[in-house]
Inverse folding.
């Protein structure tokens, strides 16, 4: 008989995983309390880098079932989610996602769905990059200065170079100009 595990993740401490656990139970999955792994960590952290998920991986065996409420509980990056599902499938673990009708993502239909979701995510990412680049090009054409404002004026940078040449320490100049040592080192290295 296969064991059923639940992975419930929230991003911040003021959120709770209780709704996810209830949703999994309402879908008919019986998860023993010790098999419900809950964790508070950003979805942008790769699944393999999450302590709770690593603990879960140590417990899972071939024939087990892992249930998540939504794909984004596994990760926000489509490629990371896909790699996680593939890794679990290779270990003989089935992954069910309630938001996709409880579909087993390791089945042929689940793999196809994951492929479509990955393609849409990739398309969306490409559109965002395209819009960002167009916006930057427009701003540049309008004469707007892009990037972070310089912390030192051209005159100050010239003074800093002169003082560095005279032997004044980087840290002392950073304190004098109210900036970071890295800024002073960039001025030095640009000379």
């Amino acid at each position: 008989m296969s064991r059923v595990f639940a992975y419930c993740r929230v991003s911040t401490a003021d959120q709770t995983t209780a709704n996810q656990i209830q949703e999994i139970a309402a879908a008919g999955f019986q998860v023993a309390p010790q098999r419900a792994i809950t964790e508070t960590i950003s979805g942008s952290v790769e699944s393999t880098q999450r302590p709770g998920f690593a603990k879960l991986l140590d417990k899972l065996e071939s024939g087990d079932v892992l249930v998540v409420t939504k794909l984004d509980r596994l990760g926000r990056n489509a490629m990371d989610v896909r790699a996680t599902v593939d890794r679990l499938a290779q270990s003989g673990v089935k992954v069910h996602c309630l938001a996709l009708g409880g579909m087993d993502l390791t089945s042929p239909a689940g793999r196809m769905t994951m492929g479509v979701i990955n393609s849409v995510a990739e398309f969306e990412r490409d559109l965002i990059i395209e819009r960002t680049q167009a916006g930057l090009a427009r701003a540049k054409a309008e004469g707007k200065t892009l990037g972070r404002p310089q912390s030192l004026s051209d005159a100050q940078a010239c003074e800093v170079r002169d003082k560095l040449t005279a032997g004044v320490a980087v840290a002392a100049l950073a304190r004098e100009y109210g900036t970071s040592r890295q800024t002073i080192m960039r001025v030095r290295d640009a000379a």
